């Protein structure tokens, strides 16, 4: 039996690839709710007038973007020692992945140490691969150079349904062309995140987004970058502590 | 044929809710096309989020995909932004499973459940590069089929549809496949479309309009008659005798994105014999066929486990009438396999305290709102429409609802009903005011919403002869009601657009000449007519005028007993005499009881097909229902113990 008085958090890293990238962040949240219900994991519920399962999703992924670095924290009843599944993270990841729709793959899972911050609080930047079209390779490289040299890059974007003008330059931490029609970027999530589409607006109106994929989310620990849950090697590596 | 996905994908970054176009729902198939398999494209001619939950389409989808000689894929109406992008990029209507163009299918089959989607049906044919008119199609074109409740007056769509299927589709889709399979196997050069249409017309329940011609005299329809031998003069609907043989859908589709009714749905019975005279569904789906309770529980158990849903709706036209509903509901809620949080919803509550008790059992968590449908504002009005809810039933239901913690009660009403007087309309406000008063005895503040729709007379009902209220008259009644409800704290009146009721009336009772009207509305850009932001009655009025027809003649004129109705050659099993007598009884305020538990009054639905009701309980539900086991003589008496200050 799990002790209802103790709870712990389990983190899953998952990917969103292929056709399913056209679903929204909220859609993915519902997919997880259904999959967790089917999994039989002892998901903890909030109290109050409108109880809900305690799931915490990280940064929203724009509809249409792919990712190999999405995260969800699930609060489970019982202390970490009773979490049978922690003994075999690989099998658990596989089992949950099987319950999720095609294109959503669970890549890793681990228990989060007590007292660790939430995904929303901790993640400060993301790495993106962005496929574009509309400019020749040299012109694209020139634009990138000009962008990085500029002190301010103002783009028009929507916030809460209203058009606003923002300087996106400070949020672009790194940007380089890695192939003729491909950019790699590191975009800050604070104070206000920048989406790949907004980055392209800053590079010129003649540049169109073809595909964007979030490769990493980064937590900054006193100048050392780590991921909420790393992929290489042991599944339990990364910043879960 | 190749998948259109590479051409679709680039369009999706720029449209709203692109998940509507990707398929991949849990439960969706990826059928392999090939020789010997009749390929069906099942279409719901409205937006994905409205069409996906449709159970009829999902049932046929599974039945066809289970057959070795058939396959089925699905499509819905692309929203206007996607349609524009598709037309600009030269992308035709495509299926969601394999993203194949509509023309890759042998049959394009529409589920038509509402009249206002007719223009969407035309739009989808056009977007699918299928010739719009049945007469223009050759053997190289897909066969266009339509089924669903609207098939009971097929004439407005007769120019565009090759074959209609009347009634339950479970068996007949197989029979249509049986005819098409061998035909499609013949060499293309010898394929004769007319010959296969004649073969289809010989299947019971299939109507091929090209084989029938309407005759008019003096601008009035006088007959619709066959023009070839060996096809029936009157086409009878199909009825599945026992739902237990059809436990579908077995794998209800779980969408990846938000849709209406996003929950598990289990149909507990089909048909209704409550005899509400305005209700087409209740008339055309008779007799009542209950699913065995064991099968219901099994379908709920399997469905919840497979889908991960935590809500199940037990669906039917009046679920509270299901034999032993309390036991079934309790067993579902208490089944440990379902976890503690599963909730059951009964989308159609009977109006009495007893039913609210059952609802209280199952909605243990969030008690926000309950909905009842008294339909008429006064007992006199409810006798005319044969919706036999006594004042006592209503107020005890509302009393029970507020007493057990619900905070909001929604009441559905119709206006523009036969014999309606202003006092009946005002009765809605009075009734709403009393419901607020009942609620205030239990809670400090309550909300009662009276939702009002303009009545549209439907084919195959006793009201099919009635002259529909004009737009102006409906507006006047809405204004009357709003005025009466003003200043009643806690009572809110909502109403359905009277203009939309007029357009629905045209499509509901029009004859074959209305086809050209629908085509004109579509050509003028009138798609998604169920969505108020896209609806404009002027388009319909202009189209009517251009075709020499009038709203007065199609909608507002009362028909007499001798007039030939456009759907007289279509049979839902109901005797015309029965409907006419019931119409006369309505005008006299006489009522009929639910025939499930009282002697048969021979409407024709059972006797005509050699069928019987399949109802487990030999007695009506406790507390009585629709006249059976109830004292109707005091139906208008308002119980003083519930409402204070009632006028004598």
What report would you give on this structure?
The complex is a heterodimer of chains A (241) and B (648). With 241 residues, chain A is α+β, with helices and mostly antiparallel strands. Helices cover 21% and strands 37% of the residues of chain A. In chain A, strands 1, 2, 3, 4, 5, 8, 9, 10 and 11 form a nine-stranded mixed beta sheet that branches. In chain A, strands 6-7 form a two-stranded antiparallel sheet. The longest helix of chain A is centred in the N-terminal third of the chain and has 15 residues. By secondary structure, chain B is α/β, with parallel strands linked by helices. Chain B has a domain of 232 residues. Helices cover 32% and strands 14% of the residues of chain B. Chain B is built from 20 helices and 19 strands. Chain B has a six-stranded mixed beta sheet. A four-stranded parallel beta sheet of chain B has the order 15-16-17-18. Chain B is globular. The model of chain B has no long low-confidence stretch (mean pLDDT 93). Classes of the chains: A alpha+beta (241), B alpha/beta (648). At the A-B interface, helix 1 of A face loops of B.
Count helical runs of chain B.
Answer: 20
- Any idea what the shape of chain B is? globular
- What is the CA–CA distance across the termini of chain B? 74 Å
Unreliable runs of chain B, pLDDT <50, ≥5 residues? none
Average pLDDT confidence of chain B is: 93
Helix content, binned percent of chain A: 10-25%
Major protein interface: A-B, 27 and 25 residues
Overall form of chain A: elongated
Number of strands of chain B: 19
Can you give the mean pLDDT of chain A?
89
């Amino acid at each position: 039996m799990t002790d209802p008085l103790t709870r712990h958090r389990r983190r899953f890293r998952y990917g969103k690839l292929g056709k399913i990238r056209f679903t929204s962040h909220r859609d993915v949240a519902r997919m997880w709710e259904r999959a967790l219900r089917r999994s039989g994991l002892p998901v903890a519920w909030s109290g109050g007038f409108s109880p809900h399962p305690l799931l915490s999703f990280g940064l929203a992924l724009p509809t249409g973007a792919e990712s190999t670095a999405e995260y969800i924290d699930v609060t489970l009843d019982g202390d970490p020692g009773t979490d049978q599944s922690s003994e075999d993270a690989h099998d658990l990841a596989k089992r949950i992945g099987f319950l999720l729709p095609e294109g959503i793959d669970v890549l890793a899972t681990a228990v989060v140490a007590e007292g660790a911050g939430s995904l929303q609080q901790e993640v400060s930047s993301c790495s993106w691969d962005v496929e574009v079209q509309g400019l020749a390779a040299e012109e694209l490289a020139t634009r990138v150079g000009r962008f990085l040299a500029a002190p301010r890059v103002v783009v028009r974007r929507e916030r809460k349904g209203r058009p606003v003008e923002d300087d996106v330059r400070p949020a672009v931490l790194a940007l380089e062309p890695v192939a003729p029609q491909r950019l790699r970027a590191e975009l800050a999530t604070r104070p206000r995140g920048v989406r790949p589409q907004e980055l392209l607006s800053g590079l010129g109106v003649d540049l169109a987004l073809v595909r964007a994929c979030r490769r990493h989310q980064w937590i900054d620990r006193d100048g050392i970058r780590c991921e909420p849950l790393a992929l290489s090697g042991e599944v339990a590596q990364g910043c879960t502590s | 044929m190749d998948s259109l996905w590479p051409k679709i994908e680039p369009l999706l970054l720029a449209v709203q809710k692109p998940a509507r176009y990707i398929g991949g729902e849990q439960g969706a198939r990826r059928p392999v096309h090939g020789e010997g398999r009749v390929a069906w494209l099942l279409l719901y001619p409205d937006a994905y989020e409205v069409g996906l939950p449709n159970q009829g389409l999902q049932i046929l989808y599974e039945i066809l995909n289970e057959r070795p000689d058939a396959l089925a894929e699905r499509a819905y109406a692309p929203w206007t932004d996607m349609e524009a992008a598709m037309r600009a990029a030269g992308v035709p209507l495509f299926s969601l499973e394999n993203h194949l163009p509509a023309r890759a299918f042998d049959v394009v089959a529409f589920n038509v459940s509402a009249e206002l989607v007719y223009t969407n049906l035309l739009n989808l044919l056009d977007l699918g590069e299928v010739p719009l008119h049945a007469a223009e199609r050759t053997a190289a074109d897909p066969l266009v089929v339509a089924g669903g409740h609207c098939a009971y007056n097929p004439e407005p769509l007769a120019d565009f549809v090759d074959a209609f299927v009347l009634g339950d589709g479970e068996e007949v889709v197989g029979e249509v496949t049986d005819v098409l399979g061998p035909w499609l196997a013949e060499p293309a050069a010898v394929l004769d479309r007319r010959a296969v249409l004649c073969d289809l017309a010989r299947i019971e329940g299939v109507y091929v309009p090209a084989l029938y011609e309407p005759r008019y005299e003096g601008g009035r329809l006088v007959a619709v008659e066959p023009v070839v031998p060996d096809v029936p003069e009157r086409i009878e609907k199909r009825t599945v005798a026992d739902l237990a043989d059809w436990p579908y859908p077995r794998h209800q589709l779980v969408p990846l994105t938000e849709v209406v009714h996003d929950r598990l749905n289990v149909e507990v019975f089909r048909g209704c014999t409550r005899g509400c005279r305005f209700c087409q569904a209740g008339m055309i789906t008779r007799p009542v066929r209950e699913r065995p309770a064991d099968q219901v529980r099994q379908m709920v158990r399997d469905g919840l486990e497979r889908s991960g849903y935590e809500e199940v709706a037990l669906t039917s036209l009046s679920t509270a009438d299901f034999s032993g509903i309390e036991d079934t509901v309790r067993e579902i809620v208490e089944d440990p396999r379902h976890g503690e949080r599963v909730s059951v919803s009964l989308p159609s509550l009977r109006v009495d305290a007893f039913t609210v008790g059952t609802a209280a059992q199952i909605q243990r968590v969030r008690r926000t709102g309950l909905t009842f449908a008294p339909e008429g504002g006064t007992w006199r009005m409810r006798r005319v429409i044969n919706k036999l809810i006594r004042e006592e039933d209503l107020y005890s239901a509302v009393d029970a609802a507020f007493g057990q913690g619900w905070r909001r009660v929604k009441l559905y009403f119709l206006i523009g009903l036969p014999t309606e007087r202003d006092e009946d309309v005002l009765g809605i406000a009075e009734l709403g005011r009393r419901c607020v008063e009942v609620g205030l005895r239990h809670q400090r503040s309550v909300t009662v919403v009276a939702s009002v729709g303009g009545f549209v007379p439907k084919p195959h009902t006793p009201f099919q002869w009635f002259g529909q209220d004009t737009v102006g008259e409906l507006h006047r009644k809405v204004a009357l009601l709003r005025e009466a409800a003003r200043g009643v704290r806690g009572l809110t009146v909502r109403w359905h657009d009277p203009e939309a009721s007029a357009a629905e009336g045209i499509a509901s009772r029009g004859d074959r000449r209305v086809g050209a009207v629908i085509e004109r509305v579509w050509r003028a850009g009138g798609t998604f007519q169920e969505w108020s932001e896209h609806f404009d009655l002027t388009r319909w009025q202009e189209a009517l005028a251009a075709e020499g027809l009038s709203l007065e003649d199609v909608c507002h004129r009362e028909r007499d007993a001798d007039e030939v109705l456009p759907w007289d050659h279509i049979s839902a099993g109901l005797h015309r005499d029965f409907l006419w007598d019931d119409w006369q009884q309505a005008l006299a305020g006489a009522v009929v009881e639910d025939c499930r538990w009282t002697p048969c009054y021979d409407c024709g639905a059972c006797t005509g097909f050699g069928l019987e009701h399949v109802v487990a309980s030999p007695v009506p539900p406790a507390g009585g229902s629709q006249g059976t086991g109830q004292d109707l003589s005091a139906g208008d008496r308002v119980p003083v113990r519930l409402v204070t200050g009632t006028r004598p």
